[in-house]
Amino acid sequence: MWVLPRARFVALTVIGVCLALPLRGEAPQLSLPIDCTLGEDCYIQNYVDHDPGPGYSDFTCAQLTYDGHKGTDFALITDDGLSEGVMVKATSKGRVVGVRDGMADGTFLNDPASIEGRECGNGVVIDHGEGWQTQYCHLKNGSVTVSSDESVETGTPLGQVGLSGKTEFPHLHLSLRHNENVIDPFDPEGNQNCEEPSQRTLWHTPAPHYQPGGTLSAGFADTVPDYDHVKSGRANAEQLPADAPALVVWGLAFGGRAGDTVLLEIVAPDGSTLITHTVDLEKPQARFYRAAGKRRPDSAWPQGIYQGRVSLLRDEQRVSTQDTTVTIRE
Q1: Residue that finishes a domain, picked among 159, 182, 205
Q2: Which residues form the domain of 157?
Q3: Sign (positive/negative) of CA torsion 91, 92, 98, 102?
Q4: Which of 10, 98, 110, 210 counts the highest number of beta carbons within 10 A?
Q5: What is the pLDDT of residues 87-102, one digit of tens each?
Q6: pLDDT-based confidence at 81, cuts 50/70/90?
Q7: Span 151-173, pLDDT tens digits
Q8: How far is CA 6 from CA 33, 115, 245, in A?
Q9: pLDDT tens for each residue of 184-234
């Protein structure tokens, strides 16, 4: 359970939405709250929702968020990161005013009702003074390393990324609040200019790069892999035998929009194109994967290195691309 005074607990459970409010008091400058490299082993899945109605919109007026989302989600690219133990860190110095640990990871996937009222899961709340607080949610069970009333510095370890509380994928949900109102660190004034997003942020320079969706990983397999296997990070085959029943390239992506296209390609060792396959997205998808391949020829696959490429296209432009290879041998 949370270890904090009753008055503070009430203040944390009834919070306002992100609005264009004057910011009073010295705002904290935030460092990256997770020990990973954005674009390599982690990425930002969701931003604060700026739409006050039933729709949703991030600070760029795109839809990398969902209705009512009150923070920034730093997600691991593979679920295997859970076992590796990715550290969550204090974004700025302050005093710990709330701690919860002891909630099992993955409970929401099997029993959603069991986490009601504890959607944050295991977490930490830090007070930075002048009405500013940060909250760190979904930490791994048993990983929290700080206690209430403890002073922390920027970068102090707080715990590890987990799957506790209301979440379907391993990530850190970071919320920033000022006088109980949600503040988007990417647009602290809440002005949300669609043509020219705010250049003023609360991040230490440089601010985390905004990636409007894209490919996360790619690989080869001898059959269409199970989605859980893809998310685990263990679906890629670096080598396959010449008698493999099929040659399949797959790609994991995020932030898909209706009308986006996933392009999957395989090039044979002799440079010829083995497949070029496109899949159009009919609706927005937060995280998804696609695969395409070809059955084995009557004899066997020619030996050598096959090249795969998975791209996310938007308005006929490449948003991002992941390349991969597989070696086929006897």
Answers
A1: 182
A2: 6-182
A3: positive
A4: 98
A5: 999 999 999 999 999 9
A6: confident
A7: 999 999 999 999 999 999 999 99
A8: 27, 20, 62
A9: 999 998 887 787 777 789 999 788 999 999 999 999 999 999 999 999 999
Joined tokens for residue 283: 């609706």
Amino acid sitting at position 111: D
The reply to whether 53 and 123 lie within a common domain is yes
Asked if 303 and 233 sit in the same domain, the reply is: yes
Widest CA span in the chain: 73
Instruction: Say what the pTM is.
Output: 0.90
DSSP character string of 66-113: -TT--SEEEEESSTTHHHHTPEEE-SS-EEEEEEE--PPTTHHHH-GG
Same domain (yes/no): 38, 174:
yes
Residue type, 44: I
How many domains would you assign to the chain? 2
Q: How far is CA 79 from CA 86, 114, 162, 189, 234, in A?
A: 11, 22, 10, 35, 9
Token pair for 132: 């500013």
Alpha carbon distances (Å) from 68 to 15, 16, 17, 48, 51: 11, 10, 8, 8, 8
Q: Is residue 197 part of a domain?
A: no
In a domain, 193, yes or no: no
The enclosing domain of 286 has a CATH number of 2.60.40.3880
